[in-house]
Amino acid sequence: MKAVCWYGKGDIRVETVPEPKILNPRDAIIKVTLSAICGSDIHLYNGYIPTMHEGDILGHECVGEVVEVGSTVHNLRPGDRVVVPFTIACGQCFFCQRELWSLCDNSNPNAWMAEKAYGYSGSGLFGYSHMYGGYAGGQAEYIRVPFADVGPVKIPVGLQDEQVLFLSDVFPTGYLAAENCNIQRGDTVTVWGCGPVGQFAIRSAYMLGAEHIIGIDRIPERLQMARTQYHATVFDYQESMSARRSKIPLEGVDPMPALMP
Ligand SMILES: [Zn+2]
Ligand SMILES: [Zn+2]
Questions:
Q1: pTM above 0.85, yes or no
Q2: Fewer CB within 10 Å: C terminus or N terminus of the chain?
Q3: What is the whole-number distance in angstroms between the Cα of residue 95 and the centre of ligand 2?
Q4: Residue 138 Cα, ligand 1 centroid: separation in angstroms?
């Protein structure tokens, strides 16, 4: 099969690699139908994440169709369409019992590496270095999903891949940021960074009751999207810094927008 593989800083290649196989009774094999590139993949691309090996398959945000399940996976069957979350969770440990999936104690066989680097380890992650388990990622035609009876979420009939893909990481990440703000109805919320996670944080903040959003970034396309899609008041921090340096009065900042319905 074809897969996106890491070969070093700035060196990512599409290679032909062996297809994954069921290794454990709780595994499933998923035929990937859509996969996203994450901002976190940029850290791998730029060589900031240790314990990457040449040939590692990238990708931790994908949806696909179940093609095979292990003998003890009873909630999925071939043909089911699923979203695959990027965290791998056993469903049985102290943390999983409290639905703190990203802290799973059992899914990262290389936890000692992450503990050495960061003090503590999270769960195993797809396509995100050996200190997070060395699991092959989802920027590939097929992926092996361990503990497949816990993580994958079945896609309801009628929803397209594009509508659910971001449930694998980007949407919940943005939602969590908004949730952590303890937003009260009518609040004004500022979102630093209007990339994909920021866009979902903006949308989530409205869902949780915010009345005004101020989006801050320096990429024109992101600011435009925040303004036109989500009626955010936008602020280009680079423009403001250069304006301040040259003592030119700040221009181009929109007035407060009409309220979201
Ligand atoms: Zn991601
Ligand atoms: Zn667990």
A1: yes
A2: C
A3: 6
A4: 11
pLDDT more than 70, % of the chain: 93
Q: 126 C-alpha vs ligand 1 centroid, how far in Å?
A: 10
Q: Could you tell me which of 121, 148, 146, 150 has the C-alpha nearest to residue 135?
A: 146
Ligand number, closest to the Cα atom of 26 = 2
Which residue do the tokens 């949806």 mark?
Answer: 63
- What pLDDT is attached to residue 239? 82
- CA–centroid distance, residue 7 to ligand 1 (Å): 20
Report the pLDDT value the prediction gives residue 256, as an integer from 0 to 100.
46
Would you say residue 249 has pLDDT above 60? no
Look at residue 240 in the predicted model and tell me its pLDDT: 72
Residue 226 Cα to ligand 2 midpoint, Å, equals 37
Distance of CA 62 from the midpoint of ligand 1 (Å): 10
| Ligand with an atom nearest the CA of residue 125 | 1
Asked if residue 87 has pLDDT above 80, the reply is yes
Ligand nearest to the CA of 93: 2
pLDDT at 255: 47
